Amino acid sequence: MHSFSYRANAVVTFAVTILAVMCGMASLSDNFNSPSPTADVKVLNINWFQKQPNGNDEVSLTLNISADLSSLFTWNTKQVFVFVAAEYGTPQNALNQVSLWDGIIQSKEHAKFWIHTTNKYRFTDQGNNLRGKDFNLTLHWHIMPKTGKMFADKIVMTGYSLPEEYR
Amino acid sequence: MGWVAQRMDSIPSSQIRRVLTQIVSLGVIVTSALIIWKGVTCVTGSESPVVVVLSGSMEPGFKRGDILFLQMNKDPIRAGEIVVFNVDGREIPIVHRVITVHERHGTGEVQILTKGDNNYDDDRVLYARGQLWLEQHHIMGRAVGFLPYLGWVTIIMTEKPIIKYLVIGALGLLIITSKE
Predict the structure, then answer these.
(1) Measuring CA to CA, which residue among A67, A76, A86, A73 is closest to residue A161?
(2) B164 CA: distance to closest CA in chain A (Å)
(3) Phi and psi based region of residue B6 (left: phi greater than 0; alpha: psi -120 to 50; beta: remaining)
(4) CATH-assigned architecture of domain B50-149
(5) Is A98 on the interface with B (CB under 8 A)?
(6) Distance between CA B102 and CA B113 in Å, rounded?
(7) Is A93 an 8 Å CB contact of chain B?
(8) Nearest by CB: A23 against B60, B117, B147
(9) By C-alpha distance, which of B129, B103, B126 is closest to B115?
(10) For residue B7, what pLDDT is reported?
(11) Which residues of chain A neighbour B82 with C-beta distances below 8 Å?
């Protein structure tokens, strides 16, 4: 009853149980955080808008993205993955979501940011439906914790549209 | 080591009933583990509800050796979700983020493009030859939770199988020669 192996077994089991409980509580504490993020995306310029040889429309935009995501950070947050996607419908597709830009915020200090950029990923349609198309820009964030449950949410901004003609 | 010799001495004095009891207890333990595993598979809706991150393509969020908890339901896949998928012909599942979704009217079928956070290119180079999109049936689950570092045990067991045999051999020896 007092051998080395019994004692080692008891200590290790207790340590692992305590560790699991701490991870669970850390994750639960994230539920008490009520975040209030803000974001704004402006389309500064349509750089070009063409139909590619494969028949799909493609557009290049310059965006100004500003956001304040500092209220999303808790002590259990490792990083926040943020991305901007264009959302629109076409006769063929009920919903299209195309990521235009993404970034990783690793600390609360960097969570209030402002960036002026062209789209990091190609804005390509399945088909040639983009002329005159109205679309939404959504800013999504994905909170990746140090341990436990991951949370994700988004802000939808409406009212953007593409030109009627290629340019 | 004295305690190994002590344990080996106890074998000839075991009775048949004790051996049978040990075999049945072992069977009960293995079966309960299997029941719990299958129950978790059922509840989460995913065939493998826990996966280990094997590559650095999702750093700094997920590092090699982290464990991800998966869930799968009929909700359509949306951009931003971290999904685990198998490419036809490859057995190792890949954990990456969905960056583009095209969903058809009516049927609700989706065509998805994924990319690892730490990769420069999207995953088209990883898909099967000629495949441009992933579909819902390729996806094994969405990542909903995360624990760091715990997957290293699995990685070590897989990459250095000699350690796996040593551990199983030692456990087997302990079970056979224990007095309980």
Answers:
(1) A86
(2) 20
(3) alpha
(4) Ribbon (2.10)
(5) yes
(6) 9
(7) yes
(8) B147
(9) B126
(10) 64
(11) 142, 150
Residues in chain B: 180
Question: In a 3-state reduction of DSSP, which class is residue A114?
Answer: strand
Phi, psi of B19 (to 5 degrees): -65, -45
Question: How is chain B split into domains, by residue range?
Answer: 1-44, 50-149, 150-180
Stated pTM of the model: 0.80
Please answer yes or no on whether B80 and A23 come within 8 Å at the CB atom. no
Chain A positions touching B117 (Cβ under 8 A) are: 81, 102, 104
Per-residue pLDDT 10s for chain B (180 aa) are 667 776 666 555 567 888 888 888 888 888 888 888 888 888 877 777 888 888 888 888 888 889 888 888 888 889 999 998 888 777 788 889 999 999 988 888 899 999 998 888 888 888 888 888 888 888 888 888 888 888 888 888 777 778 777 877 777 777 666 655
Number of H helices, E strands in chain B: 4, 6
Q: Output the CA angle B61-B117-B41, nearest 5 degrees.
A: 65
CA gap A69, A39 in Å, rounded: 8
Q: What is residue A80's predicted lDDT score, i.e. its pLDDT? A: 92
pLDDT at B9: 61
